[in-house]
Amino acid sequence: MTEKEGKDPVPVNPDSSPRLCGGSFAGGLSPMQLIELDACSQCRECLKVCPVQEVTGNPAVSPPEKIRMFREFIKATDGLKAKFLRNSEADRKMLEDFTRAVFECTTCGACGQHCTVGIYTQRLWPFLRREMVRRGFVDNEILTGMAGAIRKTGNPYNFPQEDRYRPWFPEVEVADSSPIAYYAGCSGAYGAQPMVRGDVLVLGTIGQPFTMLPEEEEVCCGFPLFVSGQHGMLEEIIKRLVAAYVARGVKTLVCSCPCCVNMMARDWPVFYGGELPFRVRHITQFVSDALREKKIFVKKELRERLIYHDPCYLSRGVGIIEEPREVLRNIPGVELIEFDRHGLESRCCGAGGAVRKVFHDNAIAMGRLAIDEAVAKKADRLVLSCPACYGKVNEAMIDHDKKITIVDIMELFSEFVEREKK
Question: All domains of the chain, ordered by start, with CATH?
Answer without folding.
Answer: 18-139 (1.10.1060), 143-289 (3.40.50.1860), 296-419 (3.40.50.11810)
